[in-house]
Design a protein that fits this description.
Blueprint: E1 7-12, H1 27-41, E2 46-51, H2 59-64, H3 69-93, E3 98-102, E4 111-112, H4 115-123, E5 127-131, H5 141-151, E6 156-161, E7 182-183, H6 185-191, H7 198-206, E8 211-215, H8 221-226, E9 233-235
Parallel strand pairs: 1-2, 1-6, 2-5, 3-4, 3-5, 6-8, 7-9
Antiparallel strand pairs: 8-9
Length: about 240
């Protein structure tokens, strides 16, 4: 099969790992993700993954409860490490080798991230799960995934969400919302669409990293996107 992309950066939201639960990690959902990821790894695609931490802790919402913003963001970074360990465990269980990297030195929980180590892991057929965001406060995991996608020289960033693409408005709230097949970075900005935060969008734009926003919760979609099927929305 002809793969459109050789190396990808997959961004998963922390919330999506909750599955049916109100909080934390739904083992069934993580196992589903692992089997979808193994399926595309078996196609010979090199995979880097960044996961959010919103199912455990969100730095920004923590600040409204009186948590210091820097400490709140650090708590969020730790949440992404927990999620990354859960996914790596599910991948290993599915028979797929994975390596967890951390943006902050946390040996022996994960390996301290460097571009070269992550690329080396992917070239060996391992999945590089890069946790801890950028390692700095005031940056989201979207920005973290944009940065890592550019660093590891990915051909595309795939943003797996609950929605099957980008719409003119929130389709969960506005039934008249229309889906885009493709949209430019600038149009996202001018329309004020909440796809990713501006720092992440700007990083992708300046470094020519295309983004595909798609519904990861429908099993089989990840493979479809990579086989070139027209699902989701392409940001260019």
């Amino acid at each position: 099969m002809n793969n459109r992309y050789k190396r990808i950066l997959l961004k998963l939201s922390g919330e999506s790992l909750m599955g049916e639960k109100q909080y934390g990690i739904d083992e069934k959902r993580v196992a589903e993700y692992a089997s979808q990821i193994k399926e595309i790894a078996d196609m010979g695609i090199e995979i880097g993954i960044v996961i959010g931490g919103g199912n455990i802790f969100r730095g920004l919402s923590g600040t409204t409860q009186g948590v210091d913003r820097v400490k709140g963001d650090q708590m969020g970074m730790l949440a992404t490490v927990i999620n990354s360990l859960a996914l790596s465990s599910a991948l290993e269980k599915a028979g797929q080798k994975a390596r967890v990297f951390t943006a902050i030195n946390m040996f022996p929980i994960g390996e301290y991230y460097s571009k070269w180590k992550a690329i080396e892991a992917m070239q060996k057929g391992e999945i590089a799960i890069i946790s801890g965001g950028t390692g700095n406060p005031f940056f989201t995991t979207d920005t973290g995934s944009a940065l890592r996608g550019i660093e590891i020289e990915a051909d595309v960033m795939l943003k797996g969400t609950r929605v099957d693409g980008i719409y003119t408005a929130d389709p969960e709230k506005d039934p008249t919302a229309v889906k885009f097949d493709k949209i430019s970075y600038d149009e996202i900005y001018t329309r004020g669409l909440k796809v990713m935060d501006l720092t992440a969008t700007t990083l992708c734009k300046e470094n020519h990293l295309p983004i595909i926003v798609f519904d990861m919760d429908t099993v089989g979609n990840l493979k479809k996107v990579l086989s070139g099927e027209n699902i989701g929305t392409l940001v260019y």
